[in-house]
Amino acid sequence: MRICVPTMGLSGAHDLVSEHFGRAASYTFVDSESGAVQVVPNDTLHMGGVGYPPDLIRAHGGEVMVCGGLGRRAVAMFEERGVMVYIGARGTVRDAVAQWRAGQLEAATDENACRQHAFREEEGHEHGHGHQHGHHPEHDS
User: Fold this and answer.
1) Residue 16 lies in domain
2) d(CA 51, CA 129)
3) How many C-beta atoms lie closer than 10 Å to residue 128's C-beta?
4) Structurally, how many domains does the chain consist of?
5) What is the pLDDT of residues 7-42, one digit of tens each?
6) What CA–CA distance (Å, rounded) separates 8 from 80?
7) Confidence of residue 84 (pLDDT cuts 50, 70, 90)
8) pLDDT band for position 49 (50/70/90)?
9) Of 60, 62, 97, 130, which one is least surrounded by beta carbons within 10 A?
10) What is the distance between the alpha carbons of residues 22 and 119, in angstroms, rounded to a whole number?
């Protein structure tokens, strides 16, 4: 199975999980069987490119995405593309994959999506769960 983790840089398995899957600097893919790692820079709309992160992740063979959290619209986009999403990942890519393997992450649903991501927000608006948010088109409802 090909697992995707939104990451803060290009360090592969040692990189940190990005708090914002859509604005992650990169997506690190890990093959759950072989352990092979591939880092793909985020060149989607959020980073001045084209397309949405769920499309990029699926195009690179992502079957599972593990992240800290995401909004309702993103959950729906991943569901439409057949990518399973798990939330609650912390630490490095290695940590996140280990958390997923151990069943410590929760399957993302509309009910547990980060509600603050569901609406347009002003740049830098903080809403109390440890990080700041700007506008994220994939999260608008």
Assistant:
1) 2-139
2) 28
3) 6
4) 1
5) 999 999 999 999 888 889 999 999 999 999 999 999
6) 26
7) very high
8) confident
9) 130
10) 15
CATH number (domain holding residue 19): 3.30.420.130
Q: Using alpha carbons only, what angle is made at residue 50 by residues 57 and 109, rounded to the nearest 5 degrees?
A: 40
Contact in structure between 133 and 116 (CB atoms under 8 Å): yes
Give the residue-averaged pLDDT of 50-69.
95
Residues 6+ away with beta carbon under 8 Å from 110: 72, 75, 76
**CB under 8 A, 24+ apart: contacts of 33-37:** 33/1, 37/12, 37/13, 37/93
SS3 content of the chain, % helix, strand, coil (to 5): 25, 25, 50
| CB-based contact 79:63 (threshold 8 Å) | no
Cα–Cα dist 93/35, whole Å: 12
AA identity, residue 111:
E
